[in-house]
Design brief:
TIM Barrel; 8-stranded parallel barrel; 2 domains; 9-stranded mixed beta sheet; Lyase, Ornithine Decarboxylase, Chain A, domain 1; alpha/beta; binds pyridoxal-5'-phosphate; 447 residues
Length: 447
Amino acid sequence: MAATTLHIAPTDPDPSFAELIAGRPHLSIHALDGLLVEEVPLARIAAEAGTPTWVYSAGALRRRARALQAALKGAGLQAGIHYAVKANTSLAVLRVLAAEGLGADVVSEGELRAARAAGIPASAIVFSGVGKTEREMRLALAEDILQLNIESAEEAEMLSAVAASMGRRARVALRVNPDVDAKTHAKITTGLTENKFGVPIAMAPELYGRMCGLPGLDPVGLTVHIGSQIAQGVASYRAAYQRLGQLVRELRAAGHPVHRVDCGGGLGIPYRDETPGSPAALAGAIKAGLGDLGVKIMLEPGRWICGPAGVLLTRVIVEKHATTRRFVIVDAAMNDLLRPAMYEAWHGILPVSPNAFHAPLSPADVVGPVCESSDTFTRNRDLPALPPDSLVTFLDAGAYGASMSSTYNARPLAAEVMVEGARFVVIRERQSYAALLEGQRLPDWTG
Ligand SMILES: *Cc1c(COP(=O)(O)O)cnc(C)c1O
């Protein structure tokens, strides 16, 4: 893996430990206990829950949900926030967000079930995704969720048939591809015509009209999602919402009802020193493009809500000194936190021991034990000496962390912990080896 990041020239110096902590209010250093999440020493969590372990701050989740709500309200927008469950599917996380009044944006039956299990009402759930199965459509209709987002003419026909066979009409929004470049990593941009998502904006009027004529559909509006980790201001949002506003006017002029615009997710976070748009700037972009249309605004943020609220806590297995490089081999790997291997993503790394914050630094490659060269979290990061059993944390791992984990190399899924003030709870047990092998069959002819 190259030492590049998505948006920053690799020659810029990495942020210091002090800068990383200053930007994350739920983290602090205690002179004796070392790195804390809220008031809980990470060393205590490691001792009691083991490693690797995901650690989420309930306070940070709440603060971020409230900050986004306040920004929308501040812009005078009547908006509903539907948290994108794929970013972090833990029931405890969903419940904390539900208690703040957030609904859910789901992309599978499993996510729909998770949202319901966490207590999110069906009336606050949106179903997105390019490939909803008939079974998923039936479940969504039986639950009577708020809205399904339609991604193609073919899907519109299919959903109409399913709904009609159940004697229902599905409330649907049409996902429009506004053909704007969100200037994010190629693997997470979605708003260009070359992507698989949505229908080209030029085709939307004709298809929306057709949808209005389908017996099983009740078109309620439009939806857009131009990409994830949009980290360079809100210009691409502005362009997308302007185009969507035009489309709303055009559809209404043709006599079609348009009550809602779902503005998607994608707001970036500063993993390193990116300067993503603020919630206030996003709210401003929505207001500028859609504010005078009298539509109900919806938003589907994932990463912005829960990314900064979580860390991945890991333990050093060994430091390996090769001819030219120093490798810190930790007990977390790409099967736990996939983002560095998949997107060349940069995550802040902090030691946990109080002494480590004052120790001399030297460049190290931090890697996991998985048998892939891409199992490299970072190269040439300035870190203190990290002898075996030292604890290390990867920052901003609350989104697309645990939810993207696998058991590759037969590594059990890591435990998840939630911190609330001075207490913490294991919200998901580390997967047992029995559970890891569960469900497999050995036909007698294999022996
Ligand atoms: C992934 C996704 C989101 C959330 O994206 P974030 O970058 O995590 O905010 C929202 N809506 C849709 C349709 C998505 O696919």
